[in-house]
Amino acid sequence: MKALVYRGPGKPSWEEKPAPTIQEPTDAIVKIAWTTICGTDLHILKGDVATVTDGRTLGHEGVGVVEEAGPGVSSFRKGDRVLISCITSCGKCDACKKGMYSHCEKGGWILGNTIDGTQAEKVRIPYADTSLYRIPAGADEGAIVMLSDILPTGFECGVLNGQVKPGDTVAIVGAGPIGLAALLTAQFYAPARIILIDTDDNRLAVSMKLGATDVVNNSDGKAVEKVLALTGQKGVDVAIEAVGVPATFDVCQDIVAAGGHVANVGVHGKSVTLKLEKLWSHNVTVTTRLVDTVTTPMLLRTVTSGKVLPRQLITHEFRLDEILKAYETFGQAAKAKALKVLVRNE
Ligand SMILES: NC(=O)c1ccc[n+]([C@@H]2O[C@H](COP(=O)([O-])OP(=O)(O)OC[C@H]3O[C@@H](n4cnc5c(N)ncnc54)[C@H](O)[C@@H]3O)[C@@H](O)[C@H]2O)c1
Ligand SMILES: [Zn+2]
Ligand SMILES: [Zn+2]
Question: How far is the CA of 125 from the centre of ligand 3 (A)?
Answer without folding.
Answer: 14
